[in-house]
Amino acid sequence: MNEDQIRGAANTVGGRVQRAAGVLAGDHGMEAEGAIREAAGRVQAKAGEAVETVRDAVSHRPLGAILSGFGVGILVGMLLARRD
């Protein structure tokens, strides 16, 4: 687990608690903030998982990662060159 996964999980749990407190208190603003915080935590945790996946792929296949990065760079360069 990396830092993004841990923080994402913490924000997800914190958002659930905040949302539940908003429901109990009848505070729709707090409830909405909790829902947003929960969703942001889920996104952050998924981003952390993606980082872990990329790290694993690079450590197991470094040449493939370099060639993939090179290919993406060429593709982005070609797309940006067409904008003129």
Record the SSE blueprint:
Blueprint: H1 3-25, H2 28-60, H3 62-81
Question: Can you give a write-up of this model?
Answer:
The chain is an all-alpha fold and 84 residues long. It has one domain. The chain is 90% helix and 0% strand. It is built from 3 helices and no strands. The longest helix is centred in the middle third of the chain and has 33 residues. The protein is elongated, with a radius of gyration of 20 Å. The termini are far apart.
Supply the key terms.
single chain, mainly alpha, 84 residues, 3 helices
Largest sheet: none
Contiguous helical run count: 3
Secondary-structure element order, as H and E?
HHH
Shape: elongated
Number of domains: 1
Helix content: over 70%
Global structural class: mainly alpha
**What is the residue-mean pLDDT, rounded to a whole number?**
93
In terms of quaternary structure, the protein is single chain
State the end-to-end distance: 43 Å
How many β-strand runs?
A: 0
Extract low-pLDDT stretches: none
| Share of residues in strands | under 5%
Report the radius of gyration as a whole number of Å.
20 Å
Short structural description:
The chain has 84 residues and is mainly alpha-helical. The protein has helices at 3-25, 28-60, 62-81.
